[in-house]
Amino acid sequence: MPRRSWRLYRITSVRFKRQRLPPQPRGNLISLSDTLGCGQLSKRPTPSRPLPSAAHGAAKGVPAHGPAVVLFNGSDLSNFDTFLKSTGLNADPKHVFQVEHGVIHISGQEFGYIITKQEYRNCYLRAEFKWGEGTYAPREGQARDSGILYNIQGPQRVWPRSIEFQINEGATGDFWMTDGAALTGKDGNRVTGPDGKASKIDRFGKGPWQNVVGYRDPAGEVEKPHGEWNVVELSIRTAT
């Protein structure tokens, strides 16, 4: 099966901005997903400006890349498919995924995701998000939860084999490996997600965590205050 690199963005209550990617050969998909009971998530267009790259001498560790590819055009989801656990591909009767005032608004009322129609590899992804207010059963009152899934393999489902860049109140920056996906941590230990389940590697410097709505890490919170926009950056490079 093809590997789909940037896939699910597990979301609770947030808004997303426009994303930009360098053009790359097919091979990996990018997607944003929504988690039932989490809340709302939004994404908005990013102002036109150069992206950090080694070629431009900007952000350390970001590989050189070509011209940006805007995944979200600010007006519709024409570059994406949608998938919901209850209704499947491109069937969204509850309007979980909507474009409002130039941002992608994800309600959080249903497990699912949006996924790019184009595949990418050797990618650098930049996205901006902020949390909304609501949370829904079965996660009502729990920490708002979202994420970017990449290196996805197998059929579309909730949730596919993948690695997730976690976006979660008090835990943004963790990595989750789902259904056989594996990642080697900074300590050299390789973590593999069990069949049908997931295993986690905590972000650097993470403090204690509680699964309650609005939670902030007392040891080193990386998100801005609730209601403000946050920037996430993710670089995926093949071994060869």
Brief digest:
With 240 residues, the chain is mostly beta strands. The chain is built from no helices and 18 strands. It has one domain.
Secondary-structure element order, as H and E? EEEEEEEEEEEEEEEEEE
Largest sheet: 8 strands, antiparallel
Tally of structural domains: 1
Structural class, judged by helices and strands? mainly beta
Share of helical residues: under 10%
Name the strands of the widest sheet in spatial order: 7-6-10-3-12-13-14-17
Oligomeric status: single chain
How many helices? The count is: 0
In whole angstroms, the N-to-C terminal distance is 20 Å
Low-confidence stretches: 1-31, 33-39, 45-58
Give the overall average pLDDT: 78
Structural shape? globular
Number of strands: 18
